[in-house]
Amino acid sequence: MSLAHPAQAQHELSISRLIDAPPAKVFRAWTEPQWLMQWWGPHGMTTPECEMQLWVGGVFRTLMRAPDGSEYPTQGVFLEIVAPRRLVFTDAFGPGWVPSDKAFMTAVISFDDEQGKTRYTARAWHWNAADCLAHEEMGFYQGWGESLDRLVEVVTQRMPD
Which residues span the domain enclosing 137? Predict the structure, then answer.
């Protein structure tokens, strides 16, 4: 199976939307930390830290902060980068391919061209049904949907072409 058009994983959550911006621009909003920090996380959250090494095995690390000061760090590595069409990363490994204590998910982000606009699809693949359900109960659809709202605002209103 090619990741170019992955089949739905057994334990997958996904969200998709047509964005009125070209794939290259949406890809940049995902891969340039100064832009990702403006939209990553649900409404009310900030992302004061973001580190990206855009190569297979490179670090993808963010820190989200809630209005009450609670912090939510994430760290993983990139598994695939096909600019400007696809990003795949996982928390199953850390830098140097060191296995993490608890693998939770792999994200497959697609940026497909539809007549100059972007069909954005974010898939969260989980290793088991329990993790998938836990992610859904954490508010996957609301949280990733609100992040997507913020991404759309960045690429349609703030980012230069």
Answer: 12-158
